[in-house]
Amino acid sequence: MKRTLISTAIALISGLAIHAAVQAANDEPIQPIKPPANINLGMVELGKKLYFDPRLSKSGFISCNSCHNLSMGGTDNIPTSIGDKWQQGPINAPTVLNSSLNVAQFWDGRAADLKAQAGGPIANPGEMAFSHTLAINVLESIPGYVREFKQVFGKDKISIEEVTLAIAEFEKTLVTPNSRFDQWLLGKKDALTADELAGYKLFKESGCVACHNGEAVGGNSFQKMGVVEPYKTSATAGGRADVTGKDADRFNFKVPTLRNVEMTYPYFHDGAANTLTEAVDIMGRLQLGKKFTKDENAKVVAFLKTLTGDQPNFALPILPPSTDKTPRPTPFAK
Ligand code: HEC
Ligand code: HEC
C-alpha cells in the first residue's frame, strides 16, 4: 500500500515535471514531435508491405519506396523524380516523414489527406503508370495478400479503398520524434551547442518561424515563394493557384517541413538548391529581404541539422509471392 502511494507520488511529480517542460516548450514557435498514437497495428503491417511492393506499378519495378526511400529521409534525393520508363517528373518529391502532420498533401495541397493521396501515384502515368483495377487484380491473385486483407478488414474483396487506408495508416507511423532539438525543447539544455542555439535564435528573430513553425516546422500553411524578391525557375508548377484557380494563389506552395531537412536535399519544389547553405541564403533574401553573413548562414544550417529525429526503424517487410495467376509486369515499351 505504502509502496503504491510512493510510486503514485513519484508518478505525479514526474508528470508535473513533464507538464512543466511541455509548458516551457509551448512558449516556443516549434513543438516537439509526438510518437504516433491510436494506430491499427494490423493495418500498419499490411500498409508497410504495400508501400514496398513494386507490383503495384506497371513496370513491376517502382514502389512508393522508390521515390520516398525510407533509408534516405523519405525522399529520392534527386531534383525531380524518375517515373515509369525513366520519365522525368515535373516536381521534387517531398518527404513522407511526418507527412501525417501536413495541413494537406502535395506541394499545392490538392489531396486533403494521406488516404486521398495514396491512390494517386499508382494510377499516375508519370509515376507508377498502373490502374487501380490492375493493382487490385494483382493483389487478389496473391493468396498471402487476400488472407491479410481479410484479417485486417474482414472482407473477401479487396478494393482501392482498403489499399489506400492501409498505406495511410503505415504512413502515420513515419514520424520522427526525439531529435536533438526536441530534446532541447523538452528541457535537456545541453542537447544543443552554442552555435546551434545561435542558429535557432537567428531563425526566430529573422522571421523564418512566421512560415516554418509548429510540430513539423512547416507543413501547416501555403505561402508565396518569393515574397520580397521573385524566385526564378524553369519549372512550370503554378502552386496553390492550380487548385483554387485564383490568381492570388499563384506560386503559393505548401511550406515544406524542415524536420530531417539535412536528409531531404535537394531543396524547393523544383529541386534546384543542392545544399542547405544555398537554400537558407535564398530563403533569407527572397522571403525576408535578409542577406545572412557566411557565419550566420552556417549557424542557421547547424540549427536545421538538429531537427533530424529518430528514423523509422523496422525489419524490411517480406512480400507474399506472386502465383501463376498473377498478371506479369510490362517493364519495357512494347
Ligand atoms: C515516381 C516517383 C513517385 C512514386 C512512385 C510515389 N511518389 Fe509520392 N510523390 C512524388 C512526387 C514527385 C510528389 C509531389 C507531387 C506534387 O506535389 O505535385 C509526391 C508526393 C507524395 C506525398 C505528399 C507529401 C507532401 O508533403 O505533400 C505523399 C504522402 C506521397 N507522395 C506518398 C506516396 C505513396 C504512399 C506512394 C506509393 C503508393 C508514392 N508516394 C509513390 C513522387 C513519387
Ligand atoms: C513567407 C513564408 C516563408 C518564410 C518567411 C521562410 N520560408 Fe522557407 N519556405 C517557404 C516556402 C513556401 C518554401 C517552399 C518554396 C518552394 O519550394 O518553391 C520554403 C522552403 C524552405 C526550405 C527548403 C525545404 C525543402 O524541403 O525543399 C528551407 C531549408 C527553408 N525554407 C528554410 C527557411 C529559412 C532558414 C527561413 C528564414 C531565413 C525561411 N525558410 C523563411 C516559406 C517561407
What does this structure look like?
- The longest helix is centred in the first third of the chain and has 25 residues, at 2-26.
- By secondary structure, this protein is mainly α.
- The strands form two sheets. The protein has a two-stranded antiparallel sheet. Strands 3-4 form a two-stranded antiparallel sheet.
- Strand 1 (82-83) and strand 2 form a beta hairpin.
- It has helices at 2-26, 41-52, 64-67, 114-123, 132-140, 143-153, 160-172, 180-185, 194-206, 241-244, 276-288, 294-304; strands at 82-83, 87-88, 222-224, 252-254.
- The chain is globular, with a radius of gyration of 22 Å.
- It has two domains: 41-172, Cytochrome c-like domain (Cytochrome Bc1 Complex, Chain D, domain 2), CATH 1.10.760.10; 180-307, Cytochrome Bc1 Complex, Chain D, domain 2 (Orthogonal Bundle).
- It has twelve helices and four strands; from the N terminus they run H-H-H-E-E-H-H-H-H-H-H-E-H-E-H-H.
- Mean pLDDT is 92; it is low at 1-19.
- The chain is 39% helix and 3% strand.
- One heme C (HEC) binds next to helix 3 and helix 4.
Q: Characteristics of this structure?
A:
334 residues, mainly alpha, Cytochrome Bc1 Complex, Chain D, domain 2, two-stranded antiparallel sheet, 12 helices, binds heme C
How do the helices and strands line up, and which of them pair or pack?
Blueprint: H1 2-26, H2 41-52, H3 64-67, E1 82-83, E2 87-88, H4 114-123, H5 132-140, H6 143-153, H7 160-172, H8 180-185, H9 194-206, E3 222-224, H10 241-244, E4 252-254, H11 276-288, H12 294-304
